[in-house]
Amino acid sequence: MAERDTHPAQWFEGSPAMRRIAADILEYGPIARTTLAQMHDLSAGTVSRIIADLMHLGVVRETGDADTSGGHLPYGFQPRKRTGERGRPQSALMANANARTFVGVKIRGGDATAVLVNAQCRMPDGVSSHVVSFSDRSPSGVTSAVASLAEQCREDAIRCGLQEPVMIGLGIGAHITDDVVDEAPYLSWIEPCDLSSMVREVTGLDTVTNNDLDALLMYEHWFGAGVGLPRFALITIGEGIGYGLVEDGRVVDHPDKTLGLGGHLLIDPDGPRCFRGNGHRG
């Protein structure tokens, strides 16, 4: 495999502190400046300077409502009430959702589905999903299918008067290490493939690739039922039984994790043989 392109996929240039604050606004907004300061043990002045930079970049915006936290907050965190503060009341903060658009692609064994989403992982009004079937399951064939879908999503953004997509996220039933697909059973890939770099070269867009179960897990963690929870589990039932875990706010990753193929988990070594005839027992 050729030397890997390590070009980072990112929304904006900024310091680690800016990224942490932006991530919390995205996950927990609408949120108060004082709450952010307490969560990160930062002074009000420091948070105000970071927010000013993020607003200048168009990453976050004020809601126009009172500076209170109206969304979920980290499990167990209770913001302290402000007392004796003076000055003009400030507005709560949210991610500037439509300032950026992204393409999300789910790759299966013979087709792929894509959708245009905003920074809050929501489909803008007037946008629908696109599906492309492919018979060529090779990395180049899949790359071509993804490029076609990305172009359709770009046309959606233009038609809706939105910014063109700045990034592509790929979800695929595969084992992935450092954004490289090690193997993809549903596509019969048994050799490492840097699919992200291939798609990036064709589309010109930053691209990241995740195991599709991990992608769903991250969605629930950031935008769905898991917002604010320090730990939770997710189980999917399809071609096999897949499972994923979030612990301490992070997706659990380890070499032996399932690829969504957890259909045979040993319970009883002397149990009955698999009815599908694969020889698995227990």
UniProtKB/TrEMBL annotation:
<dbReference type="InterPro" id="IPR043129">
    <property type="entry name" value="ATPase_NBD"/>
</dbReference>
<dbReference type="InterPro" id="IPR036388">
    <property type="entry name" value="WH-like_DNA-bd_sf"/>
</dbReference>
<protein>
    <submittedName>
        <fullName>NagC family transcriptional regulator</fullName>
    </submittedName>
</protein>
<dbReference type="Pfam" id="PF00480">
    <property type="entry name" value="ROK"/>
</dbReference>
<dbReference type="InterPro" id="IPR036390">
    <property type="entry name" value="WH_DNA-bd_sf"/>
</dbReference>
<comment type="similarity">
    <text>Belongs to the ROK (NagC/XylR) family.</text>
</comment>
<feature type="region of interest" description="Disordered">
    <location>
        <begin position="64"/>
        <end position="89"/>
    </location>
</feature>
<dbReference type="InterPro" id="IPR000600">
    <property type="entry name" value="ROK"/>
</dbReference>
